[in-house]
Amino acid sequence: MTRGDHTTAGDRPTADHADHADHADRGDHGDTGLLRRCVVVGGAGAVGGLFAGHLLRSGAEVLVVDPAPGPATATATGTGTGTGTEAGTTPTRSVPAVNVASQESTAGSPAGAPPAGEARVLRGDITDIGPELAEELGRADLVLLAVPEQVALTAVKQVAAAMRPGALLADTLSVKGPIADEILAHAGDVEAAGLNPMFAPSLGFAGRPVAAVVVHDGPRTQALLRLVESWGGRTVRLGAHEHDRLAAATQALTHAAVLSFGLALAGLGVGVAELAAVAPPPHATMLALLARIASGTPEVYWDVQSANPQAAAARAALADGVRTLAGLLDGRADGEANGEAEFAAALGGLRDLLGPDLGFYRDTCAVMFGALPSYEPRSSYEPRSPHQPGPTTSTSSPATTER
Predict the structure, then answer these.
(1) Across the beta sheet with 209-216, what order do the strands follow?
(2) I want to staple 198 with a disulfide (CB 3.0 to 4.6 A). Which of 32, 49, 236, 403 is the partner?
């Protein structure tokens, strides 16, 4: 079997966007009946906080597990003033922490129980499970690993051993092949599915794709996918290998193109202020993409390039594309007329690549260009916001998973 091809018979690529108008405000409490008790590992991070907030809003009981949770991590409303940021732009969704160990509670609540709509928070290390955390994992209907890849891979065996048979183990990793292998090897008694929100958490689920890789299907897996759709997400079922192939193109290739553009600008020695003053919309858009990535967390973009085994092929294809373009234009000995004809043929091939979606993306680009703000020169460099996180030892996913 090719590494990562771990799916049920129904895991052929589809894109089903549920009608969520009625569910968006109240959640789907029928599905949270199967997912009543949820443990979100890494819930102090942006991705974990996104899921924790929506699970709370849908009526689930949520326990956030993190070695160093902030004073606040998620509420049922999905708003707040957490300390983490997405790519250094907006605070994470906050979840008021009701500490499990100290059994804090509010007036009128049972001892140790959080107020309605709030998560409990347990300080713990998912790679070194103690008795208290093991008990919580054993009670859970859903355990969601919203942590870096190496943490998740290390944790799978012991987490699955602590869970009861038939419970759901899920993850939010951006690479699915290795985690699917670990689940097949060590988590045969639980349902298992991987979700990859293909967007930054601050953007929210509404109308956005969520890649879903189902390893061990079952009623709780289906309930979780329905919940994501009720939150507005558009689930796309993929095999693990297919997911990683597409992620290499949509994430690794895209980021590599933007980063290469920035490195090329640095090599040209042209100042950004000079460029921005005369930049046409395509260049201004590329500068905006470069600024977004450069303002983000380096480990996120490093993981996109290094963790996916198919990312190297994507970067090689990008380099080949630049060489092909250079071959059409540079040092031609057969005359300008032939070169121009070959260049036009190459553009025709790209039109064919876009196929019936050519018009949609052309019109989308026109809308984006029309919305670009006018450039205003800055007198000095604006430093990183104090909300932006520095290096961290937390096992939570980094503050952003820019998709």
Answers:
(1) 14-16, 234-237, 209-216, 191-197, 168-171, 142-145, 37-41, 61-66, 120-123, 98-99
(2) 403
